[in-house]
């Protein structure tokens, strides 16, 4: 055997020369249940995937140093969801449809998650291709999805359908603050700091109902009025529950007034934590919050409440939120 080849074989056999395999059992269970060939699957919702689910998967794979799974998710996402005209991603993939992507409109939270995860992966694994893709997506979001109205710089939820004749439709949970802070550090000239400041100011005002909570979907009018967006239930529910997750992840102190309304709702009823509340009628869900929502609520305690053990029957979205909440407070 040639000396050089022998040296390489010996080198590969040394500890630390292979990529470290992830060993978190909760991540391994999530990966086995919800990720197939790089596609992150919502098994309780017709087996569909979204740019958001792909973004969640990328963020979690990077956080668990799972290089192989990260590469698979990115490959599937690029090949199946990336648009041809812009480095953004179609929001929904339905394997029962033909073709599986019926609507090329994007969802800006999915785009942000994907760009952020790619940049983190580029830094972790020194991958220039990931860095280039992250930059292209981030720059396109800055150019195509940020608008000004009523004195605010705002993030559109997507390219089409959210600029109405008399108002903008916004989704406060699409503001992924740790990602936007990372974008601001990397490219301060692109206006991310202004977007963060204005979005937080808007969030202070976007409070409705008994608990003064933001809705999933919000309408901003040119005169500055804010209302729950027409066409959606006026509820704090499955989108808006992510707002406190992203605030804490973005280093908002847990005792901040921004977080107090969420804490009050989730501590309202003893052990019976409601899954949602109606902001017009104060009606609460007749069923309890999922483990994922409970994990986010636990972030608002000081110190954070311990994570609940995984449930083998837990759905994709709850499991994603629970793992993301754990990553958010990881040192």
Broad CATH class of the domain at 23-144? Mainly Alpha
Order of helices and strands: HHEEEHHEHHEEEHHEEEHHEHH
Question: For the largest beta sheet, what order do the strands appear in spatially?
Answer: 7-8-9
Spatial extent as radius of gyration: 21 Å
**Oligomeric grouping of the chains:** single chain
Characterization of the model:
The structure is a single chain. With 331 residues, this protein is mainly alpha-helical. It has a domain of 122 residues: Glycosyltransferase, CATH 1.50.10.10. Helix content is 44%, strand content 9%. It has 12 helices and 11 strands. The strands form 5 sheets. Strands 7-8-9 form a 3-stranded antiparallel β-sheet, with no helix packed on it. Strand 5 and strand 6 form a beta hairpin. The N terminus is likely disordered.
Short description:
The chain is mostly helical. The protein has 12 helices and 11 strands.
Present the secondary structure layout.
Blueprint: H1 3-13, H2 25-34, E1 35-36, E2 39-40, E3 49-50, H3 51-63, H4 67-81, E4 92-93, H5 108-125, H6 128-144, E5 146-149, E6 152-155, E7 168-170, H7 177-186, H8 192-205, E8 218-220, E9 226-228, E10 235-236, H9 242-249, H10 260-266, E11 277-278, H11 291-299, H12 316-328
Helix pairs in contact: 2-12, 3-4, 3-5, 3-12, 5-6, 5-7, 7-8, 9-11, 9-12, 11-12
């Amino acid at each position: 055997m040639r000396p050089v080849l022998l040296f390489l074989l010996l080198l590969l056999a040394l500890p630390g020369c292979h990529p470290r395999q992830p060993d978190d059992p909760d991540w391994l269970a999530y990966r086995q249940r919800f990720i197939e060939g790089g596609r992150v699957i919502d098994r309780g919702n017709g087996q569909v995937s979204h740019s958001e689910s792909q973004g969640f998967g990328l963020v979690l794979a990077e956080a668990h140093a799972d290089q192989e799974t990260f590469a698979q998710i990115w490959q599937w996402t690029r090949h199946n969801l990336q648009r041809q005209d812009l480095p953004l991603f179609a929001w929904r993939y339905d394997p029962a449809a033909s073709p599986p992507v019926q609507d090329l409109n994007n969802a800006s939270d999915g785009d942000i998650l994907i760009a952020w995860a790619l940049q983190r992966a580029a830094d972790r694994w020194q991958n220039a291709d990931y860095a280039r893709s992250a930059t292209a997506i981030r720059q396109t979001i800055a150019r195509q999805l940020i608008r000004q109205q009523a004195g605010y710089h705002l993030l559109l939820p997507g390219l089409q359908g959210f600029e109405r004749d008399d108002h903008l439709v916004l989704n406060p949970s699409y503001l992924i603050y740790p990602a936007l802070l990372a974008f601001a550090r990397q490219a301060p000239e692109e206006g991310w700091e202004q977007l963060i400041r204005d979005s937080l100011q808007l969030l202070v005002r976007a409070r409705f109902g008994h608990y003064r909570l933001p809705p999933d979907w919000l309408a901003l009018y040119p005169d500055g009025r804010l209302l729950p967006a027409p066409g959606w239930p006026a509820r704090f529910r499955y989108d808006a529950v992510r707002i406190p997750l992203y605030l804490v992840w973005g280093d908002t102190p847990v005792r901040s007034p921004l977080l107090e309304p969420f804490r009050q709702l989730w501590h309202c009823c003893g052990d019976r934590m409601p899954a949602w509340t109606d902001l017009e009628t104060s009606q609460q869900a007749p069923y309890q919050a999922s483990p994922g929502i409970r994990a986010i609520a636990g972030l608002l305690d000081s110190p954070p409440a311990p994570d609940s053990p995984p449930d083998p029957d837990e759905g994709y979205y709850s499991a994603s939120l629970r793992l993301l909440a754990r990553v958010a407070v990881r040192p």
